[in-house]
Write a structure and sequence with these properties.
By secondary structure, this protein is mainly α. Helix content is 66%, strand content 0%. It contains 17 helices and no strands. The protein has helices at 30-45, 53-71, 80-90, 95-99, 104-116, 121-140, 145-163, 165-179, 186-197, 207-215, 219-236, 241-250, 258-275, 283-305, 310-316, 321-333, 342-362. Helix 10 (207-215) packs across helix 14 (283-305), helix 13 (258-275) runs antiparallel to helix 14 (283-305) and helix 13 (258-275) crosses helix 15 (310-316). The radius of gyration is 20 Å and the shape is globular.
Length: 380
Amino acid sequence: MAHLSLKIPADEPLRTSPRATASDDRRFVIPYWLLFGLWLIGTIHFARSSQNANSNRLFAVACVVTSLMIGLRYRVGGDWEPYLGIYDSIYFQPLIPALGLSDPGYAFLNWLAARLDTGIWLPNLVCAILFMAGVGRLASRQPQPWLAMLVAVPYFVIVVAMGYTRQAAAIGIVCFAIADAGEKNIGRTVILIGIAALFHKTAILMLPLAVGPIAIRKALTAVLSGIVFLALFLLLLRDQSDQMITSYAQSDYNSQGAGIRIAMNVLAGGIFLLMRKRLLLSKYQIVYWTFNALLSFSSIIALVSLSASSGVDRLSLFLIPLQMITFSRFPQALSGSGKLIVPALFAVIAYCFTVEFVWLNFGDNARLWIPYSTTLFHGL
């Protein structure tokens, strides 16, 4: 049996003791900086060259490396123990009952892993692949794909993908849907967001944003989108909506650092709104990312008015791709002609470095990501 009952006693605090100290485990942040360096080298090397077969191949290899680092992590992330609990609870269950113990897509992966006796690394790896497939595809659609991924590394990849497995998979699928979304393939976009909701139900809240750019111009699309959204809501959230409201809006639990993370979205949103006409996006993409930018500002109001920040924080994770779009296009948007402004490029790089450095060294929960370890060293 790959894993069973590694859960701690219920009367003990969940992973409250530090896993790393400044004196003996600082070296274990090196893998995170190597990941940053991988995308930094690609950013600098391909900054002035157009995308070609060679750069695309190397980009794909870098995405695979990143997927493996995310998916094969071992005891990394704040929700590691709860995910082990899900795996344990599903281990002896038949398929149908197992699907009711978590979000269906994630529950199925755990049920399959239990049948194969692989342990939790298999669901982690599949979710990592889903995340990187979407985020990598979205980045590849930008003029500076390596820079777009570099923007994602310090928080989106390290914190979200390595900490919130289910939601990261859902966000990845949403990113995959939005990367090529447009009026002609809106049906595909809706289906993919529905699939994303199988991994984290809150993904269906992105559906109005996805169809909004078309719905504001076509009444029939607006009506059909409303029907689809209502159907998905009733199917996925009807029985859990009260619980979600209690957990996300009425509880007294506060997510540490939520204000800073939301501020990062607001910064990207502000720059996007000021420069959106110079970012060389399609009409659909302009409207979609404008919705995201406006939501980033509304999240400030929600953060102040709700008693708990955890719900706002978790929902705002879906807005992080806006940072990739804005900051990766910023160095070229400044020129007005599409020419790369090198000082602006290095300003974005410096910003990314600062985010990772501050979080790894001063983040309230960074100790749960340190030391980085991999399943390869502990047996698959």
